[in-house]
UniProtKB/TrEMBL annotation:
One of its GO terms (cellular component) is mitochondrion. The keyword Flavoprotein applies. InterPro entries: FAD-bd (IPR002938), FAD/NAD-bd_sf (IPR036188), RIFMO-like (IPR050641). Residues 47-417 form the FAD-binding domain. It comes from Pisum sativum (Garden pea). The lineage of its organism: Eukaryota, Viridiplantae, Streptophyta, Embryophyta, Tracheophyta. SUPFAM superfamilies: FAD/NAD(P)-binding domain. GO terms for molecular function: FAD binding; oxidoreductase activity, acting on paired donors, with incorporation or reduction of molecular oxygen, NAD(P)H as one donor, and incorporation of one atom of oxygen. PANTHER family: FAD_NAD(P)-BINDING OXIDOREDUCTASE FAMILY PROTEIN, TRK SYSTEM POTASSIUM UPTAKE PROTEIN. One of its GO terms (biological process) is ubiquinone biosynthetic process. It comes from the Eukaryota. This is FAD-binding domain-containing protein. The keyword Nucleotidyltransferase does not apply.
Length: 703
């Protein structure tokens, strides 16, 4: 049955069918997966099972579904969290969201206006002295010159709700554990809530996940079979632990308590006095970071340092949190409503591998990497994991590529995760430079805590340990008194001057990293590296903001430029829109040059042989648009999957100049908008052989 489905599925309307026999051989060799296969009566093997219904798992399920791959999502929690958690969506993630119909527009409509969250504010209290502020939005960030979309400030739980709406529109159902039992035939396109992955078996040709849930008050287990299992189940990933993949990096950087609360009065106060995204508050009574998720709605999260076992989570009950909020605000607002209180630990770790068990089990998001929150790398890196992975899984399931192609997921994404870990660590240390300048070095506080736990303080009863810790911290906070921290006091004046220098030099916590956000590059994987790449020095994260410079090297994200696809159409789109989000399709970008047309025809032939969809985009400069009467129809006949594209540039450079190439060059773009291959000069002796070599390399035939 699977073989017949393959025949029907891949009988594309190509120019001729001379390569069908070769494709059947490829199928037998590659074991390409098709739709869910039924065996042993009612048991079903799902193409993809995703464990974890956070933003990463939901984005992956959307992207896979749009590419024609059915999947199911397991979530151990019975309901989705309303804790805001992540809130900053960077440029690249917003670009990916443009592939999901209406999502970007909904985020932009719902998020607070940028002027309400562009600043980080440093103060002694929200009603007291302002030590400094940093504006993290520069004019070019909103100009859409290097990207078709801007960054966003939008709480994770709100994003989750929008993603669930998208999945509902794609035919998904969200099912409680009680309603999902006894329904084995209709497991696809389901989000199964209250289902915990308790074991994984890879001894067969498929992966078997045992899911535990509570049904009518009784715990029950059921087996779910799949071809590919993806763990997107967060920092404490069960999938990662069950398959025995270890994390490497720095553990337990800091323990904190996260307090989610509402106060419309506080929101109105800050809207009037000093709007911002983050408020770093240092005074003699308390220290904390207030995240303003939405000032208009009065929704906040307070992050407080946490030192167990001397402190316990019971010390942060709602009443205690309300008092702490008042100390940090500097006045009482009668409408503070504490919603949720959660302890958490900051780590900087990356999984030893993102794939295992013959590429049948993969990790993405926090399951694969855990970052400090500085810079918002966690969720954004995970969303980009999903984007990298979706088209590769689809290629394998559809039989376009062998399972070995999934090796390239680890090859590409793990180095990016390691780099982002280092960058987030540098940014975290930059954040810590502010309290250190004020005489409150967090490393000293952590050392003191360790001495009390493991050193001489360990002989003291727990109550005395708590008193000692509180006393030492109170002495430290005394340095924040107005008598010390003022310009008349030599010590305070010196510290305030150093603080001003840190802010002006961009050495404090940064929000945006355009060079890394848009300019990250895969050096090996599903690409054709250039000879010069071997000698390229590895990037060293600085923790400082650097501007993005467009590059068109293999592994880079396709540069953005506004263009018109139809010369007669006034509507402009981004070059990113030339890449489809609804099918596994490569895009070859050329200029209207004889040799390039010949290359394109050979590329069409090779793509046809490999049953890969290819679109050719012919870029016409503004000054050559008058030759567009006939366009490229005759030059590319009999193939019809092409587009004549006219540049709409707001700068003096044209497309090829921006890419640092000549118009005799060519660029092959992957389905995830990253460049797979290019030729700078167009001097190719045998275009057909070159295209065969390129597609074999990209689709994993050489792995």
């Amino acid at each position: 049955m699977g073989f017949l489905r393959f025949l029907r599925r891949y009988n594309y309307p190509f120019k001729d069918e001379t390569q069908n026999k070769a494709c059947l051989v490829q199928y037998m060799q590659r074991r390409g997966f098709s739709k869910a296969e039924v065996f042993n009566g009612n048991d079903v093997v799902l193409p993809v099972l995703i464990v974890g219904a956070g933003p990463v798992g939901l984005v992956l399920s959307i992207l896979l579904t749009k590419l024609g791959i059915n999947c199911t999502v397991l979530e151990r929690n019975k309901a989705f969290s309303k804790h805001p958690q992540a809130h900053f969506i960077n440029n690249r993630s917003m670009e990916i969201f443009r592939k999901i119909e209406g999502l970007v527009e909904e985020i932009q409509r719902s998020q607070p206006p940028v002027d309400l969250w562009r600043k980080f504010v440093y103060c002694t209290s929200l009603s007291g002295s302002v030590l400094g502020s940093v504006d993290h939005i520069q004019p070019q960030d909103l100009a859409h010159v290097v990207s078709p979309v801007s960054v966003a400030h939008f709480s994770q739980y709100k994003l989750t709700m929008l993603l669930l709406k998208q999945l509902e529109n794609l035919g998904f159902q969200t099912c409680a554990s009680e309603s999902s039992e006894g329904n084995k035939q209709s497991c696809e396109k389901k989000i199964l809530m209250g289902h915990e992955c308790v074991s994984i078996d890879t001894s067969n040709d498929f992966v078997t996940v045992t899911a535990s849930s509570v049904n009518n008050g009784k715990r029950v287990e059921k087996n779910i079979h799949c071809n590919i299992l993806v763990g997107t189940d967060g920092a404490g990933s069960t999938v990662r632990k069950l398959v025995g993949i270890d994390m490497r990096g720095e553990k337990d950087l800091q323990k904190l308590v996260s307090v989610h609360f509402l106060s419309k009065r506080l929101g109105k106060f800050l809207l009037k006095e000093n709007p911002g995204m983050l408020f770093f508050i240092f005074n003699t009574e308390a220290i904390g970071v207030l995240v303003a998720h939405d000032l208009r709605e009065g929704e906040f999260v307070l992050q407080i340092p946490f030192y167990p076992p001397q402190q316990t989570i019971e010390d942060f009950n709602p009443k205690a949190c309300e008092k702490l909020i008042s100390k940090l605000v500097g006045q009482e607002f009668g409408d503070v409503d504490v919603i949720d209180i959660k302890p958490w630990t900051m780590h900087a770790e990356v999984a030893e591998s993102f794939t295992c068990c013959g590429n049948r089990i993969l990790l993405a998001g926090d399951a694969a990497h855990r970052f400090p929150p500085a810079g918002g790398f966690g969720m954004n890196t995970g969303i980009q994991d999903a984007h990298n992975l979706a088209w590769k899984i689809a290629s394998v399931i559809k039989g376009i590529a062998p399972t070995s192609m999934l090796n390239t997921y680890d090859m590409e994404r793990r180095p990016i995760s390691v780099f982002n870990t280092r960058l987030s660590l540098e940014n975290y240390r930059a954040a810590m430079s502010v309290p250190a300048t004020l005489g409150l070095d967090p490393t000293v506080a952590n050392t003191v805590h360790k001495v009390i736990i493991n050193g001489v303080g360990s002989i003291l009863p727990s109550g005395l340990q708590r008193l000692a810790l509180d006393g030492i911290f109170a002495i430290g906070r005394a340095q924040l008194s107005e008598s010390v921290l003022n310009k008349s006091n030599p010590l305070g004046s010196s510290r305030l001057a150093k603080l001003k220098h840190i802010f002006e030099e961009g050495k404090s916590l940064q929000l945006q990293f355009p060079a890394e956000d848009l300019g990250f590059r895969y050096l090996q994987g599903a690409i054709m590296p250039e000879s010069s790449d071997v000698e390229s020095p590895s990037q060293v994260p600085t923790g400082r903001r650097r501007d993005y410079i467009p590059l068109a090297q293999p592994g880079c994200r396709l540069p953005h430029m506004f263009v018109r696809v139809n010369p007669l159409c006034e509507e402009t789109v981004s070059t990113h829109d030339l890449v489809s989000g609804d099918k596994v399709e490569f895009v070859l970008i050329i200029a209207p040059v004889k040799e390039s047309y010949h290359l394109a025809r050979q590329a069409f032939k090779v793509a046809e042989e490999r049953q890969v969809s290819l679109k050719v985009c012919v870029f016409w400069c503004t000054d050559s648009a008058e030759r567009l009467d006939k366009g490229s129809k005759e030059a590319l006949s009999p193939w019809k999957n092409y587009a004549d594209v006219v540049e709409v540039s707001s700068t003096n450079s044209n497309w090829w100049e921006m890419c640092n190439m000549t118009n005799r060059g060519a660029i092959l773009v992957r389905p995830d908008e990253h460049i797979a291959w290019r030729t700078i000069s167009g001097l190719i002796e045998d275009p057909r052989a070159e295209m065969q070599r390129v597609f074999s390399a990209i689709l994993g035939a050489h792995l």
